[in-house]
Design brief:
Low-confidence stretches: none
Mean pLDDT: 92
Helix content: 25-40%
Number of strands: 11
Largest sheet: 7 strands, mixed
Distance between the termini: 20 Å
CATH class of the largest domain: Alpha Beta
CATH topology of the largest domain: Beta Polymerase, domain 2
Structural class: alpha+beta
CATH architecture of the largest domain: 2-Layer Sandwich
Shape: globular
Number of domains: 2
Amino acid sequence: MQERMLHVYQAIDDICRRHSLPYWLSGGSMLGAVRHRGFIPWDDDLDIEMLRPDFERLMQILPRELPEDMALQWHTTDPNYFFQYAKVRDRRSCLSERNGYDRVWQERGVFVDIFPLEQIPRWIHRFSLLTFGHTYKIMRTSQDVRRVMWRVRLWAGLNCHLVFPFLRLLSRLFRTPYYDFALGIPYFQHSLHDDFLPVRRIPFEDTTAPIMREAEKCLTYRYGDYLSLPDNPGAQYHADDVNLDFRVQI
């Protein structure tokens, strides 16, 4: 899986560099780059972050420039995909994510997550999770999810086209210097613009990857003594039933 993720990542990296779109490794991927010069050995995902304007531009570019063995998974390419961050999928593999949300998506290969960040007050971000959280509830509580996907798409659309624009307008009245994950993403970030940029590239497996300018400060905030290996990693895998020899018509 890590080999496939690295293959996908390198395609994203090439495109971002070609179009001068800054991004950086996120969370455990950044920890792996700093501590292991690659993946955390027991990790099965790869995450990157970028500022929302760059993210929106990348969403327009990827469908045109990704290799044929990869696919962008976003609202414009998969009508049942409702997450507020994107995935780039390897089309020569197939997996089942443990959360089960992927069971109605068109693409289900090994993936790299792309998270947008925006300058938004924490309370507005939390409010967006309350309004958007109903989509997750529908998916979790429905036995026949295909029959209720119209409700998921409707609720997600109302948030994306009405609630979120209003919240972003409201955020201009309550300006904050801090960046958080974009509205509707159930994770939290709390960093300044200068914490991110300019990025710096460091070794990652057999290539290099960008990390945020203040990576060490961020890793200390999130993980404490991040250079020390845990006594018991307790790996929590994101996927089951991984088929790395899957064949689709390309």
